[in-house]
Design a protein that fits this description.
Layout (H helix, E strand, L loop, with lengths): L2 H7 L2 H31 L3 H27 L12 H26 L2 E6 L7 H29 L1 H16 L7 H21 L3 H16 L13 E5 L3 H4 L9 H20 L9
Antiparallel strand pairs: 1-2
Helix pairs in contact: 2-3, 2-5, 3-5, 4-8, 5-6, 5-7, 5-8, 6-7, 7-8, 7-10
Amino acid sequence: MNIILKRIIYFPITKIILGIAICLGILIGVQNLITKPLIYFLIANKEIGDTIINYSSVVILLLSYFYLFRIYEKRKIKELFKTNLKTELLGGFFFGFLVVSLVILILYLLGYYTIHSIANFSYLLAPLSFLIIAALIEEVFFRLIIYRILEKWIGTYIALLIISILFTIPHLLNDNVTMLSILLLLAFGFAHSIMYTYTKRLWLPFAFHLGWNFAQPFYGSNLSGTEEGHIINSSFDGPILLIGSEFGIEDSILSISFLILISIIFLYLSIKKEKIVHRKN
């Protein structure tokens, strides 16, 4: 292969662009050409059909990433190793859920959160499966492709700064974004990336992301500016700084403070365990 062409193909930015384009292209192509037509033909119930499509998309995306980078980078895909899989998936999910639950508990004790009734549990079908594939897409693209490649190229610290900004930018298009929402998104992007640095695997940041996202509609809050349906019918009544805006409980100063604390803890652990990648001269 021509040496200049080889340098272009294996240049970090090229890797990022090709990685996202190919994985996303395969996911969308298989969904639209195979899984959606087949599932909708076989299953009349759209909610059940969407659930199956979403879970099949999880498999498609992970396989696409695995084989693409195994061939492209000619290496073992350690970021998808099963090491501590159950611990990081279950622990990460409950960790993310617990953080939001602590915010809810504080608001409840302050009299700013009221439960009215329990809604139906149909949210655990298609809506939950959508949360799973949505969180997985973001973590594969932002953590496994963009952040992983940037970290190896320019080091952990600069990569953390860049990924926090890159993660925030597309979310600015969400409904009901506020200045606190921007701070939240920056902290969110940083926290998940430093979790990846510490474990060097997908599972913890993905599971935390899912637990965090699931907890908000579970308690009756909007999720990232949109109303996704709720398991608990509730109301928030108090200072916006504490209860969050229409964006959701996640842009409460309480949620943001917890995320910043989590970021500091995992940054400390990453430094202590020598997981930080330093920029090569």
